[in-house]
Design goal:
CATH architecture: 3-Layer(aba) Sandwich
Distance between the termini: 29 Å
CATH topology: Rossmann fold
Shape: globular
Helix content: 25-40%
Low-confidence stretches: 187-191
Number of domains: 1
CATH class: Alpha Beta
Number of helices: 5
Number of strands: 8
Largest sheet: 6 strands, parallel
Mean pLDDT: 93
Radius of gyration: 16 Å
């Protein structure tokens, strides 16, 4: 039986052997009994152009926005590029944040993860990612930062295999699921 909780995973890296995509894939497998974590690749997302952001935006944007809106929660994994999030992730968040005031991400529980080859694990990208999500009015999961330092040492044949890090991330998913339940309970009470 497939879990009813739908989580959307977004990796801020397009690289075929992306550490962040590998982290999300390992996490999806690790939490399969509790939730269905499905990844949405950003490879086809065009650069944000307000002229193209019409009532009929590009098809991939329609799919991306629908995936965000239909999920119960979001898990974003980002590399740190030059002390910030990747351009591809910021671009996707710009598309997702529209139309202004009606984004499917507004009020949605979000768990953020960053990783880096450095021991700092992308803490500066984490801060920038959280700031962007706050601007969209997403509901950040409040917990210790999920940062994976020296990520390249936590991989085996292209898979994220570090047991301690994976346990910490699973705890983050548990917190995300708790927030989803709280948010869902609040909506049911308002109805």
């Amino acid at each position: 039986m497939t879990p009813q909780i739908r989580l959307l995973g977004i990796s801020g890296s397009l690289r075929k052997r992306s550490y962040n995509t590998a982290i999300l894939a390992a996490l999806a497998e690790a939490v399969a009994a509790e939730a269905n974590l499905e990844l949405f690749p950003l490879n086809e997302v065009p650069l944000y152009d307000e002229d193209a952001d019409t009532p009929t935006p590009p098809t991939v944007i329609v799919r991306l926005r629908a995936a965000v809106a239909s999920s119960h929660g979001i898990v974003i994994a980002s590399p740190e590029y030059n002390f910030g999030i990747s351009g591809v992730l910021k671009n996707a968040l710009d598309w997702i944040s529209r139309p202004h005031g009606k984004s499917g991400l507004t009020g949605k529980p979000v768990l953020t993860i960053t990783s880096s080859l450095a021991t700092t694990g992308g803490v500066r990208a984490q801060a920038q990612l959280n700031e962007t999500l706050i601007a969209i009015a997403a509901q950040l999961v409040l917990r210790p930062q999920a940062v994976i330092g020296s990520v390249h040492t936590k991989m085996t044949e292209g898979k994220f295999t570090d047991a301690d890090s994976l346990k910490f991330l699973k705890d983050g998913i548990a917190d995300l699921l708790r927030d989803i339940e709280r948010y869902g309970s609040a909506i049911r009470q308002e109805s």
